[in-house]
Amino acid sequence: MADAADADPKNGSGVVNRTGMPFRLDGGVAERARIGVIVLASDHTIEHEFRQIIDMPGVAFYVARIRNDPSITPETLAAMESRIAPTTDLILPGMGLDVVAYGCTSASMVLGEQTVFDRIREARPGVACTTPVTAAFAAFNAFGARNIAVLTPYRDDVNQQVRSYIEARGYRVSVFGSFNEENDNVAARIDLESIRSAAVELGRVSGVDAVFVSCTGIRLATVVREVEEELGKPVTSSNHAMAWHSLRLAGIYDLQPQFGRLFTLSPP
Asked: Which residues contact 138 (CB under 8 A, 6 or more apart)?
């Protein structure tokens, strides 16, 4: 029973009110790495796949959602530029981040990676940055792959920009496949078997070194290893590559072979 002196003198109920309790600090859930992720307001998938992959002690990711149009066109993608810095600023204000990842593949190409990084660093000066396409290029280099099969959900004008952007960076798009769906809310519901089957079909084309599934709304992480075993070639996707690259930029090199070849490698 509490002593009478411990009772709150303003509370006739006798409830004990103790303040200034002693405490100690540790590194929290992100004592090894703290990763910020900018997620499209219309995205269904990034957080789901990041939770599957970034599941290790002392590493955590924190998201903020950026307003966007669920219809994927060059115009709607470009419109996000002015929103990147304010959205970045919402992620753990006042706390340091090891990495900030911008979660839109096609917008990263429409705006350009450096523009995305510049907008992020308006809110987080000097932070390490990545995007899905930045991560994909790092993955291609880690694989030693130059001839890439690309699968997207996008409509044709966006697909043309994707192909041009990848090829302008010195890679060859040996084969290109698309589901031709411009709505994020529909693309996110394309089932895993459809994605797996399409990736295998494209990856079997002669001369292909690796397969890249573009779009953060598309699922792939849990079947990457299965597709790689069927093809005998490395496979990655927007979320898969970006999670890997975020970890490596943050100095986390834990091996996760259950997510395929990429998660046994470091960027060259």
From this structure: 130, 241, 245, 248, 267
Per the structure, the count of domains in the chain is 2
Contact 150, 162 (CB under 8 A): yes
Q: Is residue 96 part of a domain?
A: yes
116 contacts 102 by C-beta, under 8 angstroms: yes
Same domain for 79 and 158: no
Give pLDDT tens digits for 17-56. 999 999 999 999 999 999 999 999 999 999 999 999 999 9
Q: Are 195 and 220 in contact (CB under 8 A)?
A: yes
Same domain, 251 and 228: no
Closest CA to 110 of 56, 180, 157, 57: 157
Same domain, 225 and 193: yes
Q: Rounded to an integer, what distance in angstroms lies between the CA atom of residue 65 and that of residue 68?
A: 9
Question: Is 167 part of any domain?
Answer: yes
Question: How wide is the angle at C-alpha 65 spanned by C-alphas 78 and 101, nearest 5°?
Answer: 75
CATH of the domain at 207: 3.40.50.12500
For the segment 60-114, what is each residue's pLDDT rounded down to a tens digit?
Answer: 999 999 999 888 888 989 999 999 999 999 999 999 999 999 999 999 999 999 9
In a domain, 173, yes or no: yes
The string of pLDDT tens digits covering residues 176-188 is 999 999 888 999 9
Give the DSSP H or E segment for 239.
helix 238-249
